[in-house]
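Quick one, tokens below:
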């Protein structure tokens, strides 16, 4: 079978789907090639990810990856969430087909983008190098319409 049981499970019953209205950080990333989009919402208390929700307009692997990624960062310090790699997400899903690995990258980047948004909104000093790989795909429209 192409997809593991875990991928199928998270695809069919994704965890933490939805929106956090008063999120502390919101990240949105997209993959230019397939056009899939992922949005991640974080509620952060005392440096800990208190709640996380996501919306994915994308393929099954992207849904499964974001579902798994939210479970992996919930209750963890922000610094740990930043270190979550797409490989770790794919491993937790018992693997993804090679040509579907980019779908798990969306999950990693959506989390990073949401943390970056949180840092910027709260004025928390951070190393922008941590977010360097997001520059291509995430639009900086913070407060443009206020
Ligand atoms: Fe685009 Fe999976 S095919 S995220």
């Amino acid at each position: 079978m192409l997809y593991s049981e875990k991928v199928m499970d998270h695809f069919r019953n994704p965890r933490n789907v939805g929106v956090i209205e008063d999120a502390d950080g919101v990240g949105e990333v997209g993959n230019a090639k397939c056009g899939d989009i992922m949005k991640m919402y974080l509620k952060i208390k005392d440096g800990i990810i208190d709640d996380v929700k996501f919306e994915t307009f994308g393929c099954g692997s992207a849904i499964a990856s974001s579902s798994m990624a939210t479970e992996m960062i919930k209750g963890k310090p922000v610094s740990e969430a930043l270190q979550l790699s797409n490989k770790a997400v794919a491993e937790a899903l018992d693997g993804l087909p090679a040509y579907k690995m980019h779908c798990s990258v969306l999950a990693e980047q959506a989390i990073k983008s949401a943390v970056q948004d949180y840092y910027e909104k709260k004025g928390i000093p951070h190393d922008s190098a941590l977010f360097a790989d997001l520059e291509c795909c995430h639009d900086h429209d913070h407060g443009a319409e206020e």
